[in-house]
């Protein structure tokens, strides 16, 4: 059976925590910022932990970095 390959695009965008959770950046921060309130833009700056349902898909894409 061939080796499992890591999805390089996902690897560049996702960070795996010590407990195996996935941390990503919010979308919507690159352009059309004038119509967005300051409070909304400040919240978008922070990284966030993705839900468990999406994390299952990331474990397939990142077989070595998932911690399991």
From TrEMBL:
GO terms for biological process: translation. One of its GO terms (cellular component) is cytosolic large ribosomal subunit. The keyword Nucleotide-binding does not apply. Keywords: Ribonucleoprotein, Ribosomal protein. GO terms for molecular function: structural constituent of ribosome. It comes from the Bacteria. SUPFAM superfamilies: L35p-like (SSF143034). The keyword Ribosomal protein applies. PANTHER family: 54S RIBOSOMAL PROTEIN BL35M, LARGE RIBOSOMAL SUBUNIT PROTEIN BL35M. Belongs to the bacterial ribosomal protein bL35 family. This is Large ribosomal subunit protein bL35. It comes from Propionigenium maris DSM 9537. The gene is rpmI.
């Amino acid at each position: 059976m061939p080796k499992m390959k890591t999805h390089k695009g996902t690897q560049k965008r996702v960070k795996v925590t010590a407990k195996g959770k996935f941390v990503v950046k919010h979308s919507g921060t690159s352009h059309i910022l004038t119509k967005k309130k300051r409070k909304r833009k400040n919240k978008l700056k922070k990284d966030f932990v993705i839900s468990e349902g999406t994390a299952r898909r990331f474990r397939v894409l990142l077989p070595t970095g998932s911690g399991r």
